[in-house]
Design goal:
Order of helices and strands of chain A: HHHHHH
Strand content of chain B: under 5%
Structural class of chain B: mainly alpha
Helix content of chain A: over 70%
Order of helices and strands of chain B: HHHHHHHHH
Shape of chain A: globular
Oligomer: heterodimer
Strand content of chain A: under 5%
Chain lengths: 234, 212
């Protein structure tokens, strides 16, 4: 299986451009979040982490979803390349998921005074997902490489996207037994500039995740090609 | 109908193996009773009954894990899984048969654990029993599939709890809710929803876990 097909050589040249675009967008997002968006009346400066926390969380969901889609394609079409793509997407999702936990924790400290709040549903959900997807790596790396591993990883990735809404519902339900005082937050009352900043940050994080995804994929493919070559030589 | 006959045959095979070897069930029974005794000492004086209700669910989940870790051991040790996969039956029947056998073991354990819990910590109400039954279905459905995944890996028993516990969290939420909430209805409905969703997913995906 030769991977130096024209499609992969064009994708190689696309990665630096994508990385540059991601860097530029992240820069614009940071500038907007700190200098353009107005200060929140209630929370002050700490509210600005919202422009990173929420887009990172949404990006993590997108990565997990992408990984599951690739897993489904693998089971459907039996094409080996989807295995690596699914794995890389979930890897990126786990990285962004960890960042969500980190930024959420900082936000909780700034607004609630504690590094961890069980009342923050989003944060709890990400903790569950973090544990779930960490086990994905444990499982994947303890199975011998091959079609069996690809299938099992894909099925597990599918379980993940089903677990997300189920866990979300469970955490909402748990709130009633663990925290009887349900505290309702009004919907985000964002001004136009705040919403624009949020959208830019979201776009920036999505492009960043995609650039990292392509980069890691490129590296992993290079790695496996090199290994194949080495095996041919010996 | 032949599908159900296959499932029944496979489940009966597991039950018969267990009756002859008596590997798993006595261990699970002893484990759940020991766990309840440990919990008595883990709960400080003055801890309320609600805390004990939560611990019942910890005991059940961990006991189920003990059984699930052994679920595919007979097939693995004698290399019989390849034979089963090649057998002229739908592969999901292998999962359903195994899940039914695990459910039988877990139910037997719960028949001992719930009276023991009532004896040690206080009463068990109807909502708790309904929650236990519904959660057991989910535990067996998901656990059997994950155990098959774990059986394919090098680290087997080590990786199974890591795979299983994040997926069991919704079951624990539903079960504890059914035990302690004054309105257990929606927690039971949630457990039923979980069972339905994950049973369909496991049923559809088991084939890929055991085949190349």
């Amino acid at each position: 299986m030769s991977t130096s097909s024209p499609s992969s050589s064009t994708s190689k040249s696309a990665v630096p451009a994508l990385a540059a675009l991601a860097a530029a967008l992240v820069g614009i997002a940071i500038a907007f979040a700190f200098y353009v968006a107005p200060e929140d009346a209630d929370q002050g400066i700490s509210q600005r982490i919202f422009y990173f926390h929420v887009p990172i969380a949404l990006t993590a969901y997108a990565c997990f979803g992408w990984g599951a889609v690739k897993g489904l394609l693998l089971l459907w079409r039996k094409d080996e390349r989807y295995d690596l793509e699914s794995y890389v997407a979930i890897h990126q999702g786990t990285i962004f998921g960890s960042l969500t936990l980190l930024t959420g924790s900082i936000w909780a400290k700034a607004s609630g005074g504690h590094w961890w709040l069980w009342s923050e549903n989003q944060l709890v959900l990400f903790l569950v997902l973090f544990l779930f997807y960490s086990a994905y790596f444990m499982l994947r790396f303890s199975i011998e490489e091959g079609p069996r591993r690809a299938n099992i990883s894909a099925v597990y990735a599918l379980f993940g996207v089903v677990l997300i809404p189920v866990s979300f519902l469970a955490i909402r339900l748990a709130e009633n037994i663990i925290h009887p005082t349900v505290f309702t937050r009004d919907g985000p009352q964002m001004s136009g500039v705040m919403f624009l900043t949020f959208c830019i940050a979201w776009l920036a994080m999505s492009v960043l995740a995609y650039a990292l995804y392509r980069l890691e994929l490129l590296g992993k493919r290079l790695d496996s090609n090199l290994r194949e070559l080495r095996e041919l030589l010996t | 109908m032949s599908y159900l006959a296959d499932v029944a045959t496979l489940a009966r095979k597991d039950l018969r193996l267990e009756l002859r070897a008596r590997d798993t069930l006595p261990a699970m029974l002893l484990f759940v009773v020991s766990t309840l005794v440990v919990f008595h000492f883990a709960l400080p004086e003055g801890a309320d009954e609600v805390a004990a209700q939560g611990l019942l669910w910890v005991a059940l989940v961990f006991t189920a894990l003990l059984g699930l870790a052994r679920a595919w051991a007979p097939e693995r040790e004698s290399g019989a899984l390849e034979g089963l996969v090649l057998a002229p039956c739908d592969r999901s029947a292998i999962w359903l048969g195994k899940a039914a056998a695990v459910f039988a073991f877990l139910s037997a354990v719960e028949l001992v654990a719930l009276p023991a819990f009532a004896l040690f910590f206080g009463s068990v109400d109807a909502a708790t029993v309904a929650g236990v039954v519904l959660a057991s279905i989910g535990i067996c459905a998901v656990g059997t599939l994950l155990a098959a995944m774990a059986a394919a890996s090098r680290t087997r028993e080590l990786v199974l709890p890591l795979l299983f516990l994040p997926l069991a969290i919704p079951l624990v939420v539903g079960g504890v809710g059914a035990s302690v909430s004054p309105e257990p209805g929606r927690y039971l409905a949630f457990l039923a929803l979980y069972d339905a969703i994950f049973s369909i997913l496991c049923w559809a995906s088991f084939e890929y876990v055991v085949s190349e």
